[in-house]
Amino acid sequence: MAMRFMFVLFWLWLLFFSVSAELQRLEQSIKADGSLSFLVVGDWGRRGAYNQTEVAHQMGRIGDKLNIDFIVSTGDNFYEDGLRSVNDHAFDNSFTRVYTAKSLQKQWYSVLGNHDYRGNVKAQLSPTLGKLDSRWLCQRSFVLNTEIAEFFFVDTTPFVDKYFVGPKHHHYDWRGVLPRNEYLSNLLKDLDLGLRNSAANWKIVIGHHTIRSVGHHGDTKELVKQLLPVLEANNVDLYINGHDHCLEHISSTTSPIQFLTSGGGSKAWKGDFDSLEQGLKFYYDGQGFMSVQLTRTNANIAFFDIFGTILYNLDLSKGLHSAM
């Protein structure tokens, strides 16, 4: 009897205290005509400064024109050091009071960036923020399911070695991540399983850090080694990220993956170009955002600057998934 009691306690301990990266599934409806449209913005939370307000204004205009269904944030949602608590005024000043356009009053799906990890991560993940502004939804990793596409949001910051071994003067909130190896192993297994089981015609993965980039940060070697093989093995169509404060498209030379960077939500650096990379199709070292329009077989991707001018268009098409 005592042994059985100890066994039950052991599994309760595992349930409540062990590290898990299990991917919660969320649902998003599509339009009556079977299409889906959304905007992508990253690296934005600066209380309206560094042209954040101007980018937000154009997002509202384009969002109205495209009748968007939701917005994706690729992380670094609150500079410089995330949120201090659920009562931090940065949430209101950098989010609610900036993205005021009617078309942007849709669900926001967000991941954490490295700057978010410098604050109180649990505050940014808290459902309390959703009560303050119903648009807000941020989780470490999750799956967003639609009839025509599945979106896999991935927590990329814990992959990067330097945040652990050389954080300099920064403090990172690793609650819920340690032990790190177990967390990453679970996340990669769950992602691989989710992608393999997906019957969606479009598989889209979203993270904060770059996999391929010619910008300031360049390729993230840990993601190239650990995450990219999972994406390639499961025929992912798009990897969308922020981190580099630019707009960018690199086409993989070894798989169908298109690498898309939308990290121009506020501060950017002119001339911030590292080195030419094979497969580079478009690079803009300024502020802006991205739109995506999807049907079952076609995708249109556009990059916009702070004046709402289209800088670059990408059209993709594919046959129906065999399971459809």
Automatic annotation (TrEMBL):
Its EC number is 3.1.3.2. It is found in: Secreted. GO terms for cellular component: extracellular region. It catalyses: a phosphate monoester + H2O = an alcohol + phosphate. Pfam families: Metallophos. Fe cation 2 binds at D76, N114, H208, H243. Binds 2 iron ions per subunit. Keywords: Glycoprotein, Hydrolase, Iron, Metal-binding, Secreted, Signal, Zinc. One of its GO terms (molecular function) is metal ion binding. Residues 37-246 form the Calcineurin-like phosphoesterase domain. Its cofactor is Fe cation. Residues 1-21 form the signal peptide. CDD domains: MPP_ACP5. Fe cation 1 binds at D43, D76, Y79, H245. It comes from the Eukaryota. InterPro entries: Acid_PPase, Calcineurin-like_PHP, Metallo-depent_PP-like, Metallophosphoesterase_PAP. Belongs to the metallophosphoesterase superfamily. Purple acid phosphatase family. PANTHER family: PURPLE ACID PHOSPHATASE 3, TARTRATE-RESISTANT ACID PHOSPHATASE TYPE 5. This is Purple acid phosphatase. It comes from Rhamnella rubrinervis.
